Amino acid sequence: MRLFLNLENLTNVRQTRWNSLLRPNRAPDGRWTVDAWAPLDGRVINGGVRFLFATRVVRRLRSLSLTPPHPGGGGAQGAGGGSRHKAKRRRSS
Question: How far is CA 56 from the centre of its chain?
Answer without folding.
Answer: 17
